[in-house]
Structure prediction request, 157 residues.
Amino acid sequence: MTTSLNSTAFTAAVAALSITGITFYDTTGIPDAITYRSTLPAFFPLEEWLGAGKGSPTADSTFGPAASRSWQAERVFHYLYIHSVAGEGRGLRKKYQAAAQNLEAIWAAVLQINLANTEVMNFTHTRLGSLTETRNPSSSQFIGCFVDIDVREWINP
Prediction:
């Protein structure tokens, strides 16, 4: 059986996640800008969503033509979680707690993604706090963080 890498299958699986109150976007729906009018909380791939990658034959498949060997590929997918506009309403502590709970729910859901020949290896995020959206003229401040998801895929398993 031959399989090929399919980065958009993974991003589509992330976009299909369902967590009450969070909007998930696929690579075809990356917002041009986030403003105070945007639907938040939101989780979406960054504009440069496909990060570094590497691949190598598996230990038990080191001989023969490369096309017939079993390979492992590891790649990083870059996402952004934006919970809310910073300073909107009252109670930063409550917003921060809700943001942390949503981030944990996203983490748990990503770990449950079930794609053939694909597995999530790592889920890392930056400090949850104030972010500046630089793609819009107002440069609004938001509560959120950057997320990296490391994925392993098998070719010719």
